[in-house]
Amino acid sequence: MTDLTAAFLTHPVARPTPPRGALRRTAARVDAATPVSRDRAVDALRAFAILGVVLGHWLVTALVADGNSLHAASPLGDMPWLAPVSWAFQTLAVFFLVGGHVATRGYASARARGESYGRWVSARLSRLFRPVLAVLGLWTVTAALLLLTGAEFTTVHTLVKLALSPMWFLLVYAALTAATPLLTRLHPLWPLVVVLHIDLLRFGFGAPSWLGWINLAAGWLVPYSLGAAWTRGELDRRRAGWVLLTGGTAATAALVAWAGYPASMVGVPGASVSNLNPPTLAAVTFGLAQCGLALLLRGRLRRAMRRPVAWAAVALVNLSAMTIFLWHQTALMATTATGLLVGRLPGLHTVPDGLDWVAARLAWLPVFALVLAGCWATFRSCERGGGPRRSRVVRTHRPQGRTSTAGARHV
Question: What's the whole-model pTM score?
Fold first, then answer.
């Protein structure tokens, strides 16, 4: 077997096996191939964070057909009482928490093996940016074709902006990854203080709005440095999780109730202030609460991941995390564009201004997922690269006698 996908798709065929039985046998093999020392809760948190962002975008991103053009809208604009949806699905802080933990732990392991910083960081960044080339290539061609065939510039701009919007996340994440050796001992309080002062200058003293973009790095550095603290063992006690959860929740509630911060934790088209672009103090304190909850759930997640089927699903998401993240908006837009061939469809091309739109959009989610699965099948090789990917999610063994080099390798 060369990768985890093969582990899912191949199984003994001595006699016919019911689909459910085949799935369980494949999952059991993936479970058995996972190193005993692996903390499966980390992978579960990363998978939930990625899927949370995907579902969140699918629920709050609308492409409204207006004549011959498409423009972006959000149900949170006409239905602000849906803001709690953004609390459940804006999970980037958890991803940065896990990213900081994995990066600092991985860098320490690399140093122990005598591996240079350059080799370590190039390996990590190549895994991040390899799938980006396919997205950029496809959308460069698509945008050119749309403009050449007479599509309105507003429509093309809207589509390209949505397709490439995940790139900002990768740039910030890559910068923090590259700076990992400098961040291994950083206390999360320092970037939090930077975010606080930037917001005071912007909203309290009328400083230029561009100053807020400093928070793009400082804001996500808070959960990333929490991940480093996790590696150092400073967050092992449950008390740390409770402090982050209760303190972050109280601070966020106070900022929304009394300081005028938006209740939505994602951007809303037309709103004067966005909690996400750039991150505000409210988004950061909300992220602290999320990180606290994630830390408190580690024990339960470890127990849940002992179930082979659950672990196999989480392992598959982790092996394709960047492909899923980079192509989920394309899946939404491909479905929307195809639907226009039929007409203006509820929940797909209509204005998101009522519960009927919400119900229709929920019905579209399986279609988005199916199209995303097609994107995954087409472009997953870009994430793995040309050769076998050396991931430590699972370990497979070559059968004795097939080659002269028996043993284990990571896939």
Answer: 0.88
